[in-house]
Amino acid sequence: MDGIFLAREIRNRERELNSLYKRLDQQVTDGNLQNLVNQLRQHQSQQLSQLDELIKGLEGPRPFPPTVRLARHVVQQGETLSQIASQYNTTVANLLRVNPDIDDPDMIQAGKTIRLPIILPPSPECYFEYEVKRGDTLFKLTQQFNTTVNELVYYNSIKDPDLIYPGQILIIPCPEDETSDDDKEISEELTFNTLDRSNANNYSGSIEEKLFAASTRAQLRRALNNFNIRVPTRVNFNTDIVIGAIEYDIENLYLEDRRIRVVVDRKARGYHLVTVPRDQFREQGSYRVYFVTRDNRTLDRDRVNI
Predict the structure, then answer these.
(1) Which of 301, 298, 252 lies closest to 272 in space, CA to CA?
(2) In the chain, N or C terminus with fewer CB closer than 10 Å?
(3) The domain 70-173 is classified under which CATH number: 3.10.690.10, 3.20.20.60, 3.10.350.10, 3.20.20.70?
(4) CB–CB of 206/160 below 8 Å?
(5) What phi, psi does 277 have (nearest 5°)?
(6) Which DSSP state fits 229?
(7) Can you tell me the distance from the alpha carbon of 43 to that of 126, in angstroms, rounded to the nearest whole number?
(8) Rounded Cα distance, 247 and 267, in Å
(9) What is the DSSP string of 113-149?
(10) Above 70 in pLDDT, residue 59?
């Protein structure tokens, strides 16, 4: 159990020994030996302090408040808490912390839905939940439910799009009615500045990986790591967001209510990264990002927080 129960047991026994050390101190009257007893008591006090620090580290952060939405997983036949913890890069102790109703961590029943210590962003206005089946991939689910890998990654706080697990419960946004997209009036053209551009290399990867938006340095790093592209250091995410296109050039950006339309042009090599000032957006929150061709054909969708 990650050592936490054993550490607590050792601390309990040391606390019991503490009373014996006090009695020993009272019964030893020889001056020279008294110094030795004092040293023993100091060592024991230090050991208790170290055990307290160890237990605090093993316990980790306090439970999430009830208002925070956490990811969930349906236990599969034969699964253990240790296996589930390994899949989601966490610990059994953290799983127990967010699932206080689990009485015996060694007896977890198949079919039980447990919470994961993974915080989810606010859900879309319309969505449904889906339990991952064996053989599912994010790409297959995008084809099945008319969504994108980027949206599934965002709404489910997925760190690695190539790793989803049977039993994982995913938030799936409802498909939008796109029949009216051609009739949408462009409300405002956005200004942007080129952060980095190259026409040097070919890049392999899916269209979902090649078109993206980032509102933090970590998001930009994850997107560029797929192509071994260095993250520019001069971008300030306090004032800007970044929109990127691999093997595309970004030509125009338009703001349509809470949608950002990015017009791109295909090129054989290289990439194009641009910064967009946040002060052009009147409202804070989540914006949909649509990457479209010059003839208004949608290539991919993403989402970015302003």
Answers:
(1) 252
(2) N
(3) 3.10.350.10
(4) no
(5) -60, 135
(6) P
(7) 60
(8) 5
(9) EEEEEEEPPPPPSSEEEEE--TT--HHHHHHHHT--H
(10) no
